[in-house]
Amino acid sequence: MAKDRVIGFLHDLVGDPKLRKQVTAVAPTPAAWMNVAKQSGYEFSADDLKVVSEEIAQKPLGAEDVVTELLATMTVKPSGGDGAQGDIAFSPQGIARLKSVMQQGRYSGYYRPW
């Protein structure tokens, strides 16, 4: 399922500094993130990204605001940071929401624990 690939991508984004660096180097748009994901072996549609992001954010999201809202839900601003995308630091609450979506049993993929 493509949703499994979105979950796998987000899981790896949390745990892989190299992937985070690639993501922070592009615009915070679904198209840019999908391109990075594809280069990393994950292929999914903007709709799949939106559906999973809405599950994590626990609210409806606009098509173009998916990445911005997902980051707002899953991250915190590092102290001294200006909040730019290059400052991604995942919050405990954001990681817990991702884990919750992973554990709902709807996704068949295996994910390594952090």
Describe the structure.
The protein is 56% helix and 0% strand. By secondary structure, the protein is mainly α. It has one domain (2-102). Residues 80-84 and 110-114 have low confidence and may be disordered. InterPro entries: Nif11.
Range of helix content: 55-70%
Order of helices and strands: HHHHHH
Radius of gyration in whole Å, from Cα? 13 Å
Span between N and C termini?
Answer: 22 Å
> How many E strands?
0
Shape: globular
Which whole number gives the mean pLDDT? 83
Q: State the domain count.
A: 1
Structural class label: mainly alpha
Major sheet attributes: none
Q: Can you count the helices?
A: 6
Domain Nif11: 1-49
Protein name: Nif11 family protein
Pfam families: Nif11
Task: Provide key terms for this protein.
single chain, 6 helices
Q: How is the secondary structure organized here?
A:
Blueprint: H1 2-15, H2 17-24, H3 30-39, H4 46-57, H5 66-74, H6 92-102
Helix pairs in contact: 1-2, 1-4, 1-6, 4-5, 4-6
Care to give the gist of this entry?
The protein is mostly helical. It contains six helices and no strands. It has helices spanning 2-15, 17-24, 30-39, 46-57, 66-74, 92-102.
